[in-house]
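Standup notes
- DV: blocked on the single-chain target, sequence here:
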Amino acid sequence: MQKLKRQEHAFLYTVPALIMTLIFFVIPLCYLIYVSFYKWNGLGPMEFKGFGNYSYIFRNANFHKALRVTLIWVASALLLHIPFGLLLSLMLNRKPKGWKFLRVMYFIPNVISTTAVAFMWYFIYHADMGLLNALLRAVGLGRYAVAWLGNTQTALPCNLVPFVLYVGLTSIIFLTQLSTIDSELYEAAEMDGADGLRKDWYICLPLLKPAVLTNVMLNCAFCLRTFEYPFLMTSGGPSNSTTNLALYIYREMMSANRYGVSMASGFVTILLGAILMATITRLQKEGA
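- DV (later): unblocked, structure below
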């Protein structure tokens, strides 16, 4: 009886969170799905289109580009950002001289506005007064100075570079997991003659799987919703080469006044995120 009462009391603690989730996620999501079946400019009457908006976006070349760019963001997180954060955490875990200072410095960008970071890199890449081209000219490499954000070959990579600044949070998550590893495992490895690299390979990496999956989930979520970099640095250009799904959704609503298309694109993005999160969660359970 007391156990049932404790469970009832525990459930009461979840009620505020459930109410907030209902108000700020479930109801807006239902409305988003509802509007996605209509043609609407945001002001006049709504015209039922069925799956017409979904058919439009799947046949739209700009949506295909936005989806490809978003997947490139996700790939950069998986292949560059997370491995770099892992290497950084393994280095800090050895506690070299000044490791506490380095840990703070790597984490500072995570508390800076992404808008400020985007503007900072915009002026670094600026063709005429940018720091990057100025440095190239100063060292006699002026022939390599280009309009970095105005070139379809370099604009997207330039958008991705500031993402590396947020590696501090990724490394902190890895460091937290590393701190839970029993020191006796390291001592046993040293007795067997294992050096630093072997300890990292045979002890740290196998035990870091939960942290890897957590970082994959967080970084994928960031890549799906990132907006500031393509919007402020390149406005999605040139030729939509940096337009991702978040910016595509914004344009369809605010510029083209196609609210139904925007909502349909948003729902597809949510489905993509749900598939990624479900896959990561399944991998996490299998590895538990």
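- Follow-up: The longest strand covers residues 38-39.
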